[in-house]
Amino acid sequence: MARAFTPKVITANALLEGDVVYLTEDDRWSRHLSEAELLTDEAHAQVRLLMAEGQSETVVGVYLANAAPGETGPEPTHFREEFRRTGPSNYAHGKQEHFPPRT
Questions:
Q1: Would the pTM of this model clear 0.85, i.e. be above it?
Q2: Residue 59 buriedness (CB in 10 A; 0-12 / 13-18 / 19+)
Q3: Phi, psi of 23 (to 5 degrees)
């Protein structure tokens, strides 16, 4: 029996900077998960994934990541995506200055 499709976002790394990026509904790559398009239909998600994978001059490592609707946009449902969103945790720098730790 097939598993039910869960909401997802398309994520990758920016080719030149290496930053984590998310595909938006208007086909932009944003560094903010809150701007990502939340995909709730499996067929539509696969079409969007194929389109994103075709942008090899802009991004690398494109994949679908589980997400859930949140008050300000999609939220990660797995620790890996939370880590990718906020960056390394050894000390506050870069993204961590903008995303304080959750308590």
A1: no
A2: buried
A3: -80, 130
